[in-house]
Amino acid sequence: MSLIPILEVAISLALLYLFFSQVVLSGFELIASKINLRGRFLRYQLTKALNSGNDKNWAELMYRHPSVDMLAQTTKRPQPMFRPVYS
């Protein structure tokens, strides 16, 4: 038995596996981005990890910080008065 056909089959199976795993990953990422899965999971885990059990919830304090709040995707924020001009 020749080694070349076996090698061709092995390479073909590996490429098929990589192709279909990329298709599944792309589909999952599309769905996760539509329902904001990563953001909700991150907020939940940070709240769970940084909650001191006393009066302070450090995760909420972190999310309310102006540097972090500026990055949030909300429609409540007013539009900037001047738009950046790119040349």
Structure in words:
The chain has 87 residues and is an all-alpha fold. It is 66% helix and 0% strand. The protein has helices spanning 3-34, 37-50, 58-64, 66-69.
Output mean pLDDT: 83
Please count the beta strands (DSSP E, at least 2 residues each).
0
**SSE arrangement, N to C:** HHHH
User: Rg from C-alpha positions?
Assistant: 24 Å
As residue ranges, the low-confidence spans are none
Percent strand equals under 5%
Helix content: 55-70%
Biggest sheet record: none
User: Please, what is the oligomeric state?
Assistant: single chain
- Based on CA inertia axes, which overall geometry fits? elongated
Counted by DSSP, the helix tally is: 4
Question: Which class of secondary structure composition applies to the elements?
Answer: mainly alpha
What is the terminal-to-terminal distance?
A: 65 Å
